[in-house]
Structures are given as C-alpha cells and as structure tokens.
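> run fold Flavin reductase
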Amino acid sequence: MSPARSAGHQAKPPDFSASEFRASLGMFATGVTIVTARTATGDLVGLTANSFNSVSLAPPLVLWSLSQGAGTMGAFSNGLRYAINVLAADQQQLAEQFAARGGDRWAGVRFVEGMSGTPLLEGAVATFECFNRSQYAEGDHVIFVGEVERCSHRHEASPLLYHGGKFFAEHPL
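> ok
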C-alpha cells in the first residue's frame, strides 16, 4: 500500500466533467497502435489503442490499457500473448477499422504470424510481441503489462499520430 493511502489520505473529488477530462487528455499527442492476439480457439482479435507506453528496458516491458467493458477483454485477459503494432502514417483507415464497433475488423487486413502465432500487421512502423506478464484493474480500465519477447521496426517510416480527437499523418517540424 502506498504511504499516502496507509496514512488515510485520499484524492479530492474532481472539479471537472468527464468531457473536460477527455478533452484535456486529448491534448497529449500519441502514436496509434493496434493490439492483436489469437484466442485459444484460433480466432483473431484486435483493437485500436493509443494507451501504449514503455515501462522498463531490463526486463523489456510495455503497457497498454483496455476498458473493462470491452468485448475483447476476455480474449486479452485470458491469453498468454499479444502483439502491439505501431501504425504507420498511411494506416489511418486500419486504425478506424479496428476502432469501429461491429463488423469484421479483420476484413482485408494483411498480416503475418509472429513467433507464437500472434498476428503482426503488415506495414506497421514497429511491432512488439509480448508475453501477457501482468494485469492491474484501475478505475474503468485494466492495465496490461507485456514482457517483450521480440520487436522490430522500419527505419525512417513515419508514424500515425493522434491529437485532439484527430489523426495526423504529416508531421511538420
């Protein structure tokens, strides 16, 4: 338990609305990823996420988060492995396809199988093949920590960015 909690300290209630919070978070520019996996029965699952971050170099750890109410929660929480695919500037349509509700997210998607059969999206700027090391329920999300077993990247490829609720494929310096 943290020192603040053990001393009986708590955070003050927010003085802002959920929409204000979301808009403020949107001011932090991020890359865009698609997290992919294969279920025990061989089904493909995937979703667009911009909640990706490095945690540690030794051991190599990354994290991402998923809403507790997500339809893919069971597949990711019970699976042993997943891949994080960092999207390239020309993959906005793919980000939108994997963010959409309903329909076949995998329709027309080109991928190769990673070392454990996890789908790796063709054209991604970088891929991280992860062992599902740990999960932490916090608020309305679950934080997944993955231990990276293999990674790769394309030199000089431009990433897709997300800021203020919009995608950006061109990056002026």
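The radius of gyration is 17 Å.
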